[in-house]
Amino acid sequence: MVPVRFLLLIPLIALLNGYGVEARIRRYKWEVKNEFKSPDCYRKMVITINGRTPGPTIRAQQNDTIIVEVTNSLFTENIAIHWHGIRQIGTPWFDGSEGITQCPILPGTTFKYQFVVDRPGTYVYHAHYGMQRDSGLYGSIIVGLPDGESEPFAYDYDRNIILNDWYHNSTTEQAVGLSKVPFQWIGEPQSLLIHGRGRFNCSSLSVPSSDPGLCNTTNPDCFPFRLIVVPGKTYRLRVSSLTSLSALSFQIEGHKLTVVEADGHYVEPFVVQNLFIYSGETYSVLVKADQDPTTNYWITSNIVSRPAPNTPPGQGVLVYYPNHPRRSPLTIPPAAPVWNDSRPRMAQSQAIKARRGYIHTPPAVSDRVIVFLNTQNELNGRRRWSVNNVSFTHPLTPYLIALKHNLTHAFDQNPPPDGYDFLNYDIYERHPNANTTSSNGIYRLNFNSIVDVILQNANTMNPKNSETHPWHLHGHDFWVLGYGEGKFDMFNDPNKYNLVNPIMKNTVPVNPFGWTALRFKADNPGAWSFHCHIESHLFMGMGVVFAEGIEKVGKLPSSIMGCGQTQGL
């Protein structure tokens, strides 16, 4: 029998051996359902979590375990939820990518996600089935340091803001239009939301409604977002973008923004007036409430990188306590950046470097180089996006399951190409042969190999037009080695890579007619999506899948089965 006095010493022994700061288990129960909401004053059917959009914020500390029980109470739609920025080390089946890591969650069923948040930082979660993110199924994940540890910058208060764009058509209507012959583009968003709140001009409705509740600017749902600050205090604002289409600028009238974190990694601090942010990116900026405290100030978001003259800016208010929260600023909102001036956006991208003392030096060379040419094409008369002239399609059986169980007939076993006709392809012209092919083949990476990815933008189906694409990698962070204009020069541009202090991220933009170079280590066993984070572009085929270390993946939980060839496994 163990003496009582020894049992009392066990917690002390654990503390002395480094186990004193125990990771916690954070449990959440979510019901996902359809509800009518008016986030921009226009009423439409949205997807909520426990009655809210944005959904509840997950708050945890490094190495905590998150358990989320999700009940799908939608009428007819499946769902899946991706934990964006969480690498899912040891739990690749809970990445939340339908068709890649799991079967969808059917209506009327409950699914349990369980994973560890292994790094502090600012992350998000969102739907990863169809284009449901556009319907409001998203929220924030805030991971703090363990007790007793501190960050390399000081602040008094911590707040988070999600930026979004908003459409009045349902995602089903959008998807039908994108799949039509002739092609029907979704158009620009009707409004911009700042943490779930925007303002649509109801008088601009093309067909006036007899329903006075359809568009009502007095609805509390669309009162402007208000951030209350105490004069003299410094605030950490965790700013995330989950737009469906738009690249944005974010600014607070009269206040400087000091960038200190990007996608969960500390940044060598630099100051901006406008924070340019692309879909899938997260930043932390420090803002000091050091202006005239007798007035309030505008918080604005504006579309950049594409013309959107009919989309009003997102507007919120920075409220200096004790001013009344409903008091509007005395000024007009600050001017937006010029939408088609890419120079300040490129300058911000190039300014983002790893913070001294927190640099993860990349390997000096890579084992494999893959060049992805992003093009717009047609397939059987339908408009598609392609990578190296291959438009991605999801298989019926999720890749992770098919690979683990060697279901070789579940998807195309031929790998997509590693590059394109670099010497002869003119990225500045619409290609004379607009036809593309489709495939659900994947890129198989040697485990622990170092992989370079070059993302190259080109002309779309429209003359003299190229778009911004934010690419997001699941299961990994990557080093951002460089950006450039024009066609990537495989002989000379690698000599310009930043191998000294590159930032690590999980989402990165590729500018119009430009390129972005990434490097990552294929050290996380699983099947991982890499795709454009614009909802319509992924829907139209702009993505790929990497597989690595499948033999090291543990036993798959039965909860992810049930579709395609997984039935009966």
Automatic annotation (TrEMBL):
Q: What is its main location?
A: secreted
- Signal peptide residues on this chain, from the entry's feature table: 1-23
* Listed cofactors: Cu cation
| Organism from which the protein derives | Gossypium darwinii (Darwin's cotton)
The Plastocyanin-like domain covers: 33-143, 161-321, 433-549
Q: Which family does it belong to?
A: Belongs to the multicopper oxidase family.
Catalysed reactions, semicolon-separated: 4 L-ascorbate + O2 = 4 monodehydro-L-ascorbate radical + 2 H2O
Provide the protein name. Answer: L-ascorbate oxidase
GO cellular component terms given for this protein: extracellular region
Q: Give the GO molecular function terms.
A: copper ion binding; L-ascorbate oxidase activity
Q: What is the lineage of its organism?
A: Eukaryota, Viridiplantae, Streptophyta, Embryophyta, Tracheophyta
Cite the Pfam families for this sequence.
Cu-oxidase, Cu-oxidase_2, Cu-oxidase_3
Where it sits in the cell: the answer is: Secreted
Any keyword Magnesium? no
EC number(s) per entry: 1.10.3.3
- Subunit-structure text: Dimer.
Instruction: Give the record's keywords alphabetically.
Output: Copper, Disulfide bond, Glycoprotein, Metal-binding, Oxidoreductase, Repeat, Secreted, Signal
